[in-house]
Design brief:
318 residues, Barwin-like endoglucanases, Immunoglobulin-like, 3 domains, six-stranded mixed β-barrel, 20 strands, 3% helix, disordered N terminus
C-alpha cells in the first residue's frame, strides 16, 4: 500500500473472472528507501517492489471500518457534509489522496491533520486537515490518472512522464504520479476503482522515455503472447419478471484462455462494484440485476498472467 496515495475502496471494483494512503511514515518504515541515481534511458531494474492504490469512496467509508459514523459539515474549503471516516481515517481521503463523496464530488487531501496516530487509523487532528474539491484524479505530473496504466514513482529514480514495462504484469505503464512512501525501487500502480491488485509483490522492470501503449510488446522478448482487447461487447435479453438478467457476449481473442469481466452499477451519484464471476467462454448470463439501474460492462482477455487492455465500456439500463 502506498501511504499518501493509496486510494483503497473504489467506485468500481474489478471482477476477476478466470481463477481469475497524508503524512509520510518514518523512513525506516518505508520500503526501498535507499537513495539511487536517476536511471538512464532503456534501463532494466530487478526486484522492484509493487504496490497499488485506488480511490476512496464515502459509500464504503462512512463508519463501516472504524465504527465512527460522525458527519462533518462545511469543513474548511469543502461545501456540504461528509463522514469523518471518509475524510480523516486511514481508510479515506487523507490516506488515499483522493476520494469521491456520496454527493458525487471528488475530494482531495491537501495538507495538515497533525500526522497519523500510531496505527495509521486516524489523523491526530482532523479539524486542521486541509481538503479541496477537485474535478477528478490527477497525478503529480498534472495528467489525469488512468486505471491500470498510471503509476507512482520516485522521481529521483524514474522521471515523470517516462514509461515502464512491469514484467510480472505483462504490460506497459506511465510514470504519472509520486507518493510520500514511494522511495527508490518501488512502483505504485493506480487501480482506480477496479479493485484489481498486482499479480506479484516484486518484478523486473524496463524503463524508457519512448512512449508505449499498455498492450505494446515486451522489451524482453521471449515469445510473450500479447493479447488484444475483446470487441463487440453487447448486453441483451433483459428479463421482464422480477429482477433483471442480461446476456453478455463479446468477440473471441486469439491466444486467450479466459476472460475477466468488470461490472459496475450506478447509484447514489457514483459507480460501484456489482458482480464477480468466473468466465472461460465469450458469453455470460448475468442474473439478479436490480431493475431501473444503469449498469456498465467491460471485459479483457487473459492467458496465464498476461492480460489485454479493457474493452470499451458498454452501458445499459432496463
Amino acid at each position: 500500500m502506498r501511504m499518501m496515495h493509496l486510494l483503497g475502496y473504489g467506485l468500481i471494483f474489478a471482477i476477476i473472472i478466470t481463477g481469475c494512503e497524508t503524512d509520510v511514515p518514518p523512513d525506516d518504515e518505508v520500503l526501498g528507501t535507499a537513495i539511487l541515481p536517476i536511471v538512464a534511458d532503456n534501463t532494466t531494474l530487478t526486484d522492484v517492489t509493487l504496490t497499488h492504490y485506488t480511490l476512496a469512496n464515502e459509500a464504503s467509508t462512512s463508519g463501516q471500518n472504524t465504527g465512527n459514523t460522525e458527519i462533518l459539515c462545511n469543513h474548511p474549503n469543502l461545501s456540504g457534509c461528509y463522514h469523518k471516516e471518509f475524510l480523516c481515517s486511514g481508510y479515506g481521503v487523507a490516506m488515499q489522496g483522493t476520494g469521491i463523496g456520496n454527493d458525487g464530488k471528488y475530494v482531495k487531501y491537501v495538507s495538515g491533520g497533525g500526522g497519523w496516530m500510531w496505527n495509521y487509523q486516524w489523523l491526530n487532528n482532523c479539524g486542521s486537515a486541509v481538503f479541496a474539491h477537485v474535478s477528478g484524479v490527477t497525478g503529480a505530473s498534472g495528467k489525469t490518472l488512468i486505471e491500470q496504466y498510471s503509476i507512482a514513482v520516485d522521481p529521483t529514480l524514474i522521471p515523470l512522464g517516462w514509461y515502464v514495462w512491469i514484467d510480472s504484469e505483462q504490460g506497459w505503464y506511465r510514470a504519472d504520479d509520486t507518493g510520500g512512501a514511494i522511495k527508490g525501487k518501488h512502483l505504485d500502480i493506480y487501480m482506480g476503482a477496479t479493485g484489481a491488485k498486482p499479480k506479484a509483490g516484486t518484478s523486473k522492470i524496463f524503463v524508457t522515455q519512448t512512449a508505449h501503449a499498455k498492450g505494446d510488446p515486451s522489451p524482453f522478448g521471449g515469445g510473450t503472447t500479447m493479447l488484444t482487447a475483446p470487441s463487440g461487447l453487447w448486453p441483451s435479453g433483459w428479463s421482464t419478471i422480477g429482477q433483471a438478467t442480461v446476456n453478455l457476449t463479446w468477440s473471441q481473442v486469439s491466444g486467450a484462455d479466459g476472460y475477466e469481466l468488470y461490472v459496475k452499477a450506478f447509484s447514489g451519484g457514483s459507480w460501484h462494484h456489482y458482480w464477480q464471476a468466473s468466465i472461460t467462454q465469450t458469453s455470460y448470463n448475468l442474473q439478479l440485476l436490480m431493475t431501473n439501474t444503469p449498469y456498465a460492462f467491460a471485459v479483457r482477455a487473459k492467458n496465464g498472467n498476461t492480460t489485454s487492455p479493457l474493452s470499451t465500456w458498454s452501458t445499459f439500463k432496463r
